[in-house]
Amino acid sequence: MEDDAIPPYDSDIPYDDGHDHDSMGHDAMGLMDHDNMGHHGPELRSPPHNYEVEQALLGAVLANNKAFERISDFLLPAHFADPAHAEIFQACKTLIERGQLANATTLKNYFSGSGSLEELGGTSYLAELQSSVVTIINASEYGKIIHDLYIRRELINLGEEVVINAHTHDLDLSATQQIEGAEQKLYRLAEAGQTEGGFVSFGDALATSINYINVAMKQGDGLAGISSGLRDVDKLLGGFHHSDLIILAARPSMGKTAFVTNIAFNIAQATKPGHNADGDETEIPMSVAFFSLEMSADQLASRILSSAAEMPSHLMRRGELDNDQFEHVFQVSRALSNYKLFIDDTPNLTIPGLRNRVRRLKRQHGLDIIIVDYLQLMSGAPGGNSDSRVQEVSEISRGLKGIAKEMNVPVIALSQLSRQTEQREDKRPQLSDLRESGSIEQDADVVLFLYRDEYYIAREKPGQGAEDSTDRFHEKLANHEARLEAARNKAEMIIGKQRHGPIGTVELHFNGEFTKFSDLAPDDHLPEHH
């Protein structure tokens, strides 16, 4: 074999499928007519492989161990079609990673202890491999061919699995779930199929960083990411950054859903630079994907409408509006209907299902941010092998981080907290409260907690003990009322983790009547009557 000859798939060394090939590279048996197939049964093919390329690559590694450096980051022993070649490659890998020399002589000693040398073809086969030399330059190309053929074999196996599952009538696994399971496995296979990548030069990384700084300067508000619409939140976070996974966690009744609906509404109102149908530069609306696994789409829309119209949701829900109020709500709803805020209320949504929906939305309407309410209500991949719910939730959080990177948009996912916060005197949540959910803390770029002291103080109304005098009891009531008044309509957003900046606490105003979060005015800016 010539040193610089790299066999393409349709060359004189095509992958071996067990059939004769004509001079055009076509499979002679592949030209069998339909009638003959009907008489003789389906065509049998061996999985795609190329033993000669495997031999050539092993020869390159044995002749010059530096060839291993060109393939070690993507090629594994399991990628070889011939089990003997896989075992030899594993032996080379072991020796080289130990800092030892891997050649026909050292492999002979390596295998002599296990007694498997004869099964691999003996010393003569090792010598034959070492003589099948290609240059180091070609080693990576041979490695890519071997890896590509492995991916093709895995595709065939996956296709056969899909066919078998489709024929199996499983009441617990619907056809849609089977599709999502197959898509998840295809996505993992696609990730495994990446042979490119590795290091990025410091210059390229710096150029990307400078671009983010330039964007923030042009916006003039210090934001490199997407604005939340809340001044103090943006000041501490710098906006929601592309490819980030933001976890928003809180105990029930803290206002998690209200907070993210406010964020979704604020972002949907905003615009960004873009191009119109004629290609001219213009401002285009932001696009928000909201996955509501707990509330229906109409319930979520009603909550956003209540906040935007500043109309109590319970009056809207019961229809207790006069004509003027209804007209106001109607006009606000007409304005909101033009926003690119898309709600998906599919229950038990899986990561593959979510990925498919956001891909489609991005193609059709663009995509700027994804919101998931909430993470623990998602399901693992159909047919997954998670041994516990903790592992399943961990897989979901990793999947959400993968979607954030793939779509290059921020993903905000709501999360429940463990009950241990209720046992502490200070009930403000901490990062440790997330640990029962596996790798959420590790996968997240930002972890936010919502806390409202008012909620807990209101439930601590003192009673009169047997030893309390009337004056003492009234004093306790007065202290409780003072604490409640100080905490009224206030919320804290606690930044427990942030890769890009500091941690800290932001105070917000919360209007429970309209389920609306807004910036908290400083005390010296409040009207005197307040």
Walk me through what this model shows.
- With 530 residues, the chain is α/β, with parallel strands linked by helices.
- It has two domains: 29-168, DNAb Helicase, Chain A; 208-443, Rossmann fold, CATH 3.40.50.
- 45% of the residues lie in helices and 12% in strands.
- The chain contains 18 helices and eleven strands.
- The protein has helices at residues 34-40, 51-63, 83-97, 104-112, 122-131, 136-167, 175-192, 202-219, 231-237, 256-269, 297-309, 313-318, 323-336, 351-365, 389-407, 440-443, 453-458, 470-487, and strands at residues 245-250, 271-275, 281-285, 287-292, 340-344, 369-373, 411-416, 446-451, 490-498, 504-511, 516-519.
- The strands form two sheets. The protein has a nine-stranded mixed sheet with strand order 5-4-6-7-1-8-9-10-11, with helices on both faces. A two-stranded antiparallel sheet has the order 2-3.
- Strand 2 and strand 3 (281-285) form a beta hairpin.
- Helix 2 packs across helix 5, helix 6 runs antiparallel to helix 7 and helix 14 packs parallel to helix 15.
- The chain is elongated, with a radius of gyration of 31 Å.
- The N and C termini lie far apart (89 Å).
- The relative contact order is 0.09.
- Mean pLDDT is 77; it is low at 1-42 and 524-530.
In short:
This protein is an alpha/beta fold and 530 residues long.
